[in-house]
């Protein structure tokens, strides 16, 4: 993965993982040296890609991230449908605004894996169904977790069988 200039001694090399949805963006942060991805936050989509990019740029700066890994929603047969095309367009635009390199990672079934990891939503008051706020909060946790799973898959793929970092393939 292109990660930009080498970080100073003791400074972790980081990337942001992105799970792009129609209404929300799950964000995770990953340490390239430790190869660990952690859920960070869930953002509401802005009205424009440029506005989304400004928020992502600010987060990348705060986290000292040097690249983005964006989940690509491939069809089950591995093909790219309309959602994958829209995601690529969004990511390329965001990369252009932020100046950060972008990599794509197959995100098939990441939301289902995240749902299993997060578990069921909390019950509402008196044991009833969850409130709208509880449902929204649960969905936001799933989006963050999906971003972390996508990013962890990419970090894991960067290591070959002999434990060395995969060379940058330019994707």
Give a quick set of tags describing it.
five-stranded mixed β-sheet; alpha/beta; 171 residues; Nucleotidyltransferase, domain 5; globular
Structure description:
This protein is of the alpha/beta class. The protein has a single domain (14-157), classed as Nucleotidyltransferase, domain 5 (2-Layer Sandwich), CATH 3.30.420. Helix content is 39%, strand content 22%. It has four helices and five strands, in the order E-E-E-H-E-H-E-H-H. It has helices at 49-63, 82-98, 110-118, 132-157; strands spanning 14-20, 24-31, 36-44, 65-72, 102-106. It has a five-stranded mixed sheet, with helices on both faces. Strand 4 (65-72), helix 2 and strand 5 form a beta-alpha-beta unit. It is globular, with a radius of gyration of 16 Å. The N and C termini lie close together (8 Å). The model is unreliable at 1-7 and 166-171 (pLDDT under 50).
Task: Furnish the topology, listing elements before pairings.
Elements: E1 14-20, E2 24-31, E3 36-44, H1 49-63, E4 65-72, H2 82-98, E5 102-106, H3 110-118, H4 132-157
Parallel strand pairs: 1-4, 4-5
Antiparallel strand pairs: 1-2, 2-3
Helix pairs in contact: 1-2, 3-4
